[in-house]
Please model this.
Amino acid sequence: MDKALQTMIDNMPEKTGKSLTEWKDVLKTKSFSKHSESVNFLKKEHGVTHGFANTIVSLSKEENNSPADLVAQQYKGKENLTPIYEALLKVVKTFGNDVTITPKKTTVSIIRKKQFALIKPATKTRIDLGLKIKDKPTTDRLESSGPFGSMCTHRVQLTNASQVDGELIDWLKEAYEKAE
Model:
């Protein structure tokens, strides 16, 4: 956990009147379908500032999901894609000790100082690999980012682990090197 987040959690009782655990208990009494609904509830009903409300909601969602759980949930019913995911991780882990792999609910972010790749099981038969390589022309294989929007500049659709080949590794490496 980074220092700023830990400081925010430590200051929560003084600044908001409750500890993080107490706020999580408050949220458990309600059912919200969207992150923003939970944040707005804390702001309007409890006078919590946006920064604290956002942190409380984010941390309460993550509480029960370890990184392994998040990945397992992403690939549930799509286990055939796991070898592609594992091949991608094996490659990025060779780039350096500064690579951070961060599973989220529907994607896995690959970060150096900035995110440079995003792995998403898009369908039961395909992983979309988002890459951030500014000013790189698209090709038939290295498409525009599509569903990733501004998070990535390009997308590669992968249906087999053999597609994690030299060309793809070069693109990953280039994205990594530009993410300083």
Residues 140 and 156 are 9 Å apart (CA to CA). The chain has a mean pLDDT of 90.
